[in-house]
Amino acid sequence: MGVNAIITDQLGELKTEIKQNTDHPSYANLILAQISELNSSEDSNAV
């Protein structure tokens, strides 16, 4: 996910969403995750 911590009152909903995306990711979510990782690594290199 590219984060160190998440603050939420909806922990159950967050866990369900993470489980769905990890167990059965759609093709669109796989592409989105890859793009997010690329953007994250580019931001780290820019500093």
Structure, described:
- This protein is mainly alpha-helical.
- The protein has one domain (3-43).
- 70% of the residues lie in helices and 0% in strands.
- It is built from 2 helices and no strands.
- The chain has helices spanning 11-23, 27-46.
- The protein is flat.
- The model has no long low-confidence stretch (mean pLDDT 82).
**Spans with pLDDT under 50 lasting ≥5 residues?**
none
Strand content: under 5%
Gap from first CA to last CA: 20 Å
Number of domains: 1
The total strand number stands at 0
Question: How does the helix and strand content classify structurally?
Answer: mainly alpha
Helix content range of the residues, please? over 70%
- SSE ordering: HH
The backbone outline, from C-alpha atoms, is flat
Q: What is the mean pLDDT? A: 82
Largest sheet: none
Rg result: 13 Å
The number of helical elements comes to 2
Itemize the secondary structure elements and their pairings.
Elements: H1 11-23, H2 27-46
Keywords: Hydrolase
Protein name: Glycerophosphoryl diester phosphodiesterase
EC number: 3.1.4.46
